[in-house]
Write a structure and sequence with these properties.
With 329 residues, this protein is α/β, with parallel strands linked by helices. The protein contains eight helices and 17 strands.
Length: 329
Amino acid sequence: MRVLAARGLAGEVRAIAELNPGGRDNRQLTENLAYLLAADSTHGPFPGAVEAAGTSLKVEGHAIPVIYIPHPQQVDWAGFGAKVVVEASGDPQATAEARGLLAQGVAKVLFTRSAATADATLIRGLNLDDYDPVAHRLISCSTCTANALAPVLNVIHQAHGVRRGAIATVHPALSGDTLLDGPAKEFAVGRGALGVRAVHSEVARTTGQVLPELAGRLTAMSLRVPTTVVNALIADLTLDRPPSHAAEVVELLARATEGPLAGVAALERGLMGRPRAAADFKGDPHSALIDTNWLALSGDLLRILIWHDNEYAYCCRVADTLELILSRR
């Protein structure tokens, strides 16, 4: 909502469906949503007017009905005039049910996750121009980490050939993390969020979806850490055609960030001749900030460090995809 409002698109939002009401009073829940939008612990105050009006969220004078219902197919999207539904619940069952929305007057469903049922997985800086308004009705924006890695990896692969890659992400806490230990599907995730936990990462699989020539060549893991929003991604890549010097890779990436990856990736050179820290990248709209301070080449082994605000930057990419869909209906 913050990104859409910043782009003047808040008035395009027709309705919001909260799929996990948890048995609370709907008016109180709407007030809670308004409260969370108006004052965000990470990104600060919302720059416009926000209030609750009954069971509607009022953003900059635009009233958006909030429907509390457990299944997206039970929402009368067509009645609200919604042509595109952004499926951002994180619920796998809701993703599986999304195709049924197409028979109810919805033109497109956009997933904020990797989805096997999608007609296309689109990432800006890689294949967003492949969007087909006729054939692509269920669209995945992939994951925040794949949006950070895949466009940069593609540039390196095209120039130098990536034979193998080992990816490690230092990932901030997520909404499912808890301060106290508790059960979780992946056991380590359920350990207290104030500690560092090694968990599974999907970035090797999701990158292989959009770069099929690299499918099976990447491995990945994630360290979940008690920080907020900014992710550090470290990629160790074995190259088929390695350059002579690391400066050649920096030059290659500099050209890409000024060309096909403009607005998607940027070079991060530090501050006062010294590397920055994760907190400096909060709220940055780039999918990938390539830190040249830590880029290193040893023979055919290239190490690259990418920073990204895995919430805000990803929302920017979802908004980019929405704007493309709206412009090519």
